[in-house]
Amino acid sequence: MVWTAVAAALLVLCGGVAWSLTRFEARREALTAPPADLMIQPGVSAAEVEAVKDGLRAADRYFRSALGRGVDERVEVRLARERGCRWPMSATGPATAWAESHFLCVNTMSPTWREVMAGDPAAARSIVAHEHVHNLQGQVGCRRSSDEHEWLWLFEGMAVHLAYQAMVAEGRWKDEEALSQIRRWGVDDPQLGALSAYERTGAGAGDPAYALFHLATRSLVQQAQGPSSLLAFCREVARGRPWREAFAGAFGLSVDSFYARFEQERQRVVGRR
Ligand SMILES: [Zn+2]
Questions:
Q1: Does 106 share its domain with 83?
Q2: Distance of alpha carbon 26 from alpha carbon 43, whole angstroms
Q3: Which domain of life is it from (predicted)?
Q4: Engineered SS bond to 253: which of 20, 45, 51, 257, CB 3.0-4.6 Å?
């Protein structure tokens, strides 16, 4: 009898802990284009909600006009005010933003988010657009979890490049200024390796790595048939085609030829020739 009571008490306790870890107290606001449910925690400002909505809409418009499709299935978009969006958090604390096929998280308490909201509203929108590219990758079927990457630089490069171009299409940024952003983010960082070193890991290097991925994807799209080649690649990979084959099919050159060509272009951008 006593043990039954102890077991029952433990169950209630564990249930309570699980509930407090997994619940996400928020008000819901539905968006139709793209189809999304915003889950907004108390304390998130109206300007932040607008930035998230604008980022989603800009991405959606750009995807539909440049790629011919958007994120069609509903996405839950959490705007977290505390402790990130979902338990368990990563060891380094909650990321600024992250996404899965039907889920997008913006951690409004992260220093990066607070900084861009204060000084560069287009950058805040581009963070959301970047994550929405990951939603698209997920729904098309080419999203990879962090331990499964084979073409990481292109997976992240696609997100940075399409998010940048979405801001260009909205008139918030200029296409010809992409290179200055890429330089500002530290593409000349001497710690960065060859692009070919970033197939499986390396996003942890932060802004300089993302600058490199942006430059590479931008260069790839320019020499291929425009941004829809990215979607063609994603679809082929989703069908199970090995990525190097899918790459050659979508972009019209082998991965190794691209690497060789890109490293020369990179030297010109970085300015050490
Ligand atoms: Zn990303």
A1: yes
A2: 10
A3: Bacteria
A4: 257
Residue-wise pLDDT tens digits, 75-123? 999 999 977 888 776 666 778 999 999 999 999 999 999 999 999 989 9
116 and 80 in a single domain? The answer is: yes
Q: How confident is the model at residue 20, as a pLDDT?
A: 54
Say if residue 132 is in the same domain as residue 203. Answer: no
| 205-209 LR contacts (CB < 8 Å, sep 24+) | 209/156
State the DSSP H helix or E strand holding residue 93, giving kind and residue range, or none if neither: none
CA 255 to ligand 1 center in whole angstroms: 21
The protein residues having their C-beta less than 5 angstroms from ligand 1 (an ion) are 156, 159
Distance between Cα 166 and ligand 1 center (Å): 15
Rounded distance from Cα 46 to ligand 1 centre (Å): 25
132: CA distance to ligand 1 center in Å? Answer: 9
Ligand 1 center–CA 146 separation, angstroms: 11
Cα first-last separation, the chain:
80
Q: Which of 93, 108, 272 is CA-nearest to residue 192?
A: 272
Mean pLDDT (whole number) for 62-85: 94
65 shares its domain with 81: yes
Residues 198, 209, single domain; the answer is yes
Domain count, the chain: 2
- Res. 18 pLDDT band, cuts 50 70 90: low
